[in-house]
Amino acid sequence: MTTINTATETILAPLFINSNDLLNHWQGHRRVTRRVIEAFPEDELFNYSIGGMRPFAGLISEITSMSGPGVKGIATDEWTTINEMDHHTGKTEVNSKDALLMEWDRITDEINTFWAQIPTEKFQEVVLAFGQYEGEAYGIILYFIDNEIHHRAQGTVYLRSLGIEPPAFWNRD
Amino acid sequence: MTTINTATETILAPLFINSNDLLNHWQGHRRVTRRVIEAFPEDELFNYSIGGMRPFAGLISEITSMSGPGVKGIATDEWTTINEMDHHTGKTEVNSKDALLMEWDRITDEINTFWAQIPTEKFQEVVLAFGQYEGEAYGIILYFIDNEIHHRAQGTVYLRSLGIEPPAFWNRD
What we know:
The structure is a homodimer.
Chain A: H1 6-9, E1 15-18, H2 19-39, H3 42-47, H4 56-76, H5 86-89, H6 97-115, E2 126-129, E3 133-136, H7 137-161
């Protein structure tokens, strides 16, 4: 029995998904999230919330500060610290829907750029994300994606309560 | 260059996550979702909603009818049809929190049982889920998980609006 390369050596169980397919899966979700941002009226995007939660722009700001810099950190081992992240400082310079969407698109490109630089074996290695969260890189990345799905879904409840039909969850085009 | 087995032949890009780790990741999410069910008062679980959406028990019923039977379908190629699924018929025999939690635990076991029977190569093969949704098995399974995260997050907004702190998203123990 021979191994081909280091990537195959790490397989102790069947392949579930490879890194290209996972990136495509994530970017599909990001297209949905972008449509949810677009569906909000400008004022409600920054000011509307339910039960004391953050407005949707605040949730998006958290996603943004985690996802792009997170992939960069995994690719380069250079991490922003948790205290520099928008949802901890509460500071953000993004105060219009257009600016939020522009920042969203910048992060989409940043993810693609740094994803291509992640070393082959890195996904199975333990990293210390943002100087604080320790785990296998695949788990850290799934956290970014799951956190996006989680907060986006909360935004869809805001939309429903405003009488606005949210973009379809299943449409990733 | 030699391949070890069919699983490694399918690797055209680096491994992101193997099937054991993905199952553990999912079951971690299922522990969170179970705690969200528990956090609801009995009446609100079945009757409370926002913006015309389904009560949380209805969302859980959708998750249940998709996840256990979905893994069984991928493992055995025997699928329930979409019309037999609870959220389409609107029928469910589960009408108490205890019964909902019991059904949840049954599905947890069903997922573990049938996951172990999924053939090694199956995750990369195209399947027709529930006779209706075509895609690679990994994508179908990610849909089950993402759909659970999505609807659970909606439930956390219900809880917040009821003045109840939801279980922590990040705690998967």
